[in-house]
Amino acid sequence: MTRLRLLGGPNSPFVRKVLIALIEKGLLDQVDLVRLSPPATSITVHDMLLTHNPLGKIPVLTVGDGPDLYESDLICEYLEATFPDPALLAVGQERWQTLRWNALGTGALEMLILWRGERLRPAEQRSDATIIAFAAKLKAVLAAMERDLPALAASPFGLGHIAWGCFLGYLDFRFNDLDWRGQWPDGAAWYDAFLERPSAAATLPDPDPAARPHPLRLARQRLTWG
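Given the sequence above, the corresponding structure tokens read:
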């Protein structure tokens, strides 16, 4: 099998999404993990990354001499088509539900990335209206997830679970001050159960002094980034 190469870093929720898919499919030992330093951001220019993804974003999956694959959804679609077992996308009508859950989780992650960028601005440059809008959207996202959680929890593990788990994990990692767990205890319990999967525990972000501590972070499998 041609070796795969994943460009990214351990703290990107979109990289985490791809890593979980790789681990679930038993492919991690076929992948070289290439960590970008400094980490890729919306204002960071990596010449090497731009040669693989003109958008300058991670993750990027390179497959031998084939075209570079970028954006987590495209990479997961490739993995599903090329390595179908175990399946992470349902078939038939259930497939649309899986894709819908994935769209909600991935779209919510994109919102958090933009929100964090706004929060990192100097105080005098922040837009109060923008921050209020993000907070309203987060409330709507959590309400939508609360409505769908029973159906998601009852369905076979797949891409929807991965997207939701990466979203909630990023809330823990970068937005722990919002107390989303207190607002949605059932969601917090679901995420803690999600972390019992080896793929989820192994891909927790690197420890951060501001992050909510989690015991699995200390016991997880360590991924080796080159």
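The domain at 93-197 is CATH 1.20.1050.10 (Glutathione S-transferase Yfyf (Class Pi); Chain A, domain 2). Try to locate this feature in the token string yourself.
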